[in-house]
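seq as requested:
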Amino acid sequence: MTISKNDLKNILEQWQSGSIGADEVHKWAEERYAVSGWETDSEVTNEVLGELDMLDMNLLIKEDADSFLSILNDPSYNNRRASRGKA
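struct tokens:
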């Protein structure tokens, strides 16, 4: 199965609105990140999913969802990441 940017946006928006808590976000990500049978639709999606998988270790809070949503909504973010990889 494929995890899309929209899947992540949906989870982050639910977290922001308070419909789900940090523990549910972490559990959702943990069940999908680096697990066989799951893949992401882009490097950005994978990066954000990885951050959510480590939510309990990095002490992220609901307000951090804004930063992740900005990254997911920025079409040039993939280009900047790719450019850094080639340098």
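Residues 2-86 form one domain.
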